[in-house]
Amino acid sequence: MQQLDNIILDAIENNNRIGYFAFLYRRVTAEILKEVQLGNFEDNARMETFDVTFANYYLDAYNGYSNQQPISKSWQFAFDTKNETLTILQHIMLGINTHINLDLGLAASTTMNGLEISAIKKDFNTVNTILGNIVNEMQDRLSRVSPLLFLLDLAGKNTDEEIINFSLKKARELSWYNANLLWGLGTLHQDTAIQQMDTTVLSLGEFIKAPKSKIVMYALQFLGKFEEKNVGRVISRLREE
């Protein structure tokens, strides 16, 4: 948790948009830990290990990026957008896309190495529910710093919801499939599969950054002009109860 706090603090001090996803993800890890402490998982000790493993995939990617070391293509792409004038929603979703569509399956496979992976499925789905609830909460809070976010609804078929649903609802099935695939391959034979997953997740990130619909792109560019630009002020407003 302290490492996430440090990332958020550094982002605020340097007006770095990487802090947007870090702020959301701190909420996720805190919520999972709270559920562990309340005993709401089938195997709470295992899920505490899972929570740490899951977080470490993000932290390792962040530290690798900060130290200019090789990391996954999808995380590299997400971090590289930190200085681009995308909307706050897009910056958050780029992080969510990679962490769920790539890291979540990896974390489940790693946690269940040597065990029967089906045993974690119910708790795995509970984690997905927690993620979904926090993203929905964050969407509501985003209206404080992105007052024209509703334009995405008008741009066509609840586009903001579509982006989130694509990265969350469908990702539940994809990440569970990936977890089973990696678990079945075993730690010594996963490299090619992970590279293929990384390439797929990168493509999804490119879609989030630049949707093919021109109407949606115009809407994103327009609403971005009216968003709060100071990272510290954005995070401060998102924190408000």
Any key phrases for this structure?
241 residues, mainly alpha
Structural class call reads mainly alpha
The total of helices stands at 11
Mind summarizing the main beta sheet? none
Q: How many strand units?
A: 0
Q: Ranges with pLDDT <50 over ≥5 residues?
A: none
> In whole angstroms, how far apart are the ends?
21 Å
Q: Helix-strand pattern, N to C? A: HHHHHHHHHHH
What is the radius of gyration computed over CA atoms, rounded to a whole number of angstroms? 17 Å
Rounded mean pLDDT is 87
Report the sheet-strand fraction: under 5%
Amount of helix? over 70%
What does the overall shape look like? globular
Question: What does this protein structure show overall?
Answer:
The chain is an all-alpha fold. The chain has helices at residues 2-14, 18-37, 44-66, 73-80, 88-111, 121-142, 151-155, 159-185, 191-209, 214-224, 231-239. The protein is globular.
Any chance you could write out the topology, listing elements then pairs?
Layout: H1 2-14, H2 18-37, H3 44-66, H4 73-80, H5 88-111, H6 121-142, H7 151-155, H8 159-185, H9 191-209, H10 214-224, H11 231-239
Helix pairs in contact: 1-2, 1-11, 2-3, 2-5, 2-6, 3-5, 4-5, 4-9, 5-8, 5-9, 6-8, 8-9
Task: Describe the structure concisely.
This protein has 241 residues and is an all-alpha fold.
